[in-house]
Amino acid sequence: MKKILSALLAGAIACTAAFALAGCGGSNNAGSNSSSAASDVESKADEANKGELHMATNAFFEPYEFYENDKIVGIDAEIAEAICEKLGYTLVIDDMDFDSIITAVQSGKADFGMAGMTVTEERKQAIDFTDTYTNAIQVIIVKEGSDKVKSAADLETASIGVQMGTTGDIYVSDFKNATIERYNKGADAVLALTQGKVDAVVIDNEPAKAFVAQNEGLTILEEPFENEEYAICVAKGSDLTAKINTALNELKSEGKVDEIIKKYIKA
Ligand code: ARG
């Protein structure tokens, strides 16, 4: 009872905070669309009894998470599925804006976040990270034959498209003479590039490859930008971190993580 009460209270506070920031339940399929904080927490508690774990993600990030028909698939979706299977939970994936994921995890609306999410010191202040499961590079996409951006140094005075709240956004925000255009989806930043609205897009290498394959006339600059590592985020102090780590490390040593990555990323 005590637990439920404090969960209700935490949920209500988190929801109020979320309302102030972005509007509670403002993200697409994230949890219920109910406007009442209490019923949100209640339905969440019911689901927990059924043994569900909710994963918060932003499913426009191929090959990590993306829609195949109505289903969210990809490296993260499959690793999460394998982790849940080991821990005896049913996985439920909640799709939302990338910059809502940490709030969803902090408030308990989601149990963990997995979204090709890079471990950063700043994020560690807000949530805990599990062990890392893969690495990535931030790269620069430009139009073929671009004169404006030929190297990372050229970004400093360019107009750059990024997905809001991502590390790409964080890195280029240091450039005082650049113009940063922030989009909800990486695909929208890439669209702006094809339309000549921005000179370059900074985004993770694998999604970049997928975008370049799907859009004529784009190319990735050879020069890599920043190296990063991906991990799963969990509410601060939650015992889920240790549980996920146990399952994740088993999956790594069984070769399952590599197998899933190889399925989606052809060498
Ligand atoms: N790795 C970058 C970050 O953590 C981008 C992740 C974007 N993920 C997504 N599912 N849209 O900020």
Written overview of the protein:
The chain is an alpha/beta fold. It folds into two domains: 52-135 and 229-264, Periplasmic binding protein-like II (D-Maltodextrin-Binding Protein, domain 2, 3-Layer(aba) Sandwich), CATH 3.40.190.10; 136-227, D-Maltodextrin-Binding Protein, domain 2 (3-Layer(aba) Sandwich). Helices cover 40% and strands 25% of the residues. The protein contains ten helices and twelve strands. It has helices at residues 2-21, 37-49, 75-87, 101-107, 121-126, 167-172, 186-194, 205-214, 240-253, 256-264; strands at residues 52-57, 60-61, 65-68, 71-73, 90-95, 112-113, 128-143, 159-163, 179-183, 200-204, 218-220, 226-234. Strands 1, 5, 6, 7, 8, 9, 10, 11 and 12 form a nine-stranded mixed beta sheet that branches. Strands 2-3-4 form a three-stranded antiparallel beta sheet. Strand 2 (60-61) and strand 3 (65-68) form a beta hairpin. Helix 1 packs across helix 2 (37-49) and helix 3 packs across helix 9 (240-253). The longest helix is centred in the N-terminal third of the chain and has 20 residues, at 2-21. The protein starts with a helix and ends with a helix. Mean pLDDT is 86; it is low at 1-39 and 45-50. The structure holds arginine. The site of arginine has 14 residues, from loops.
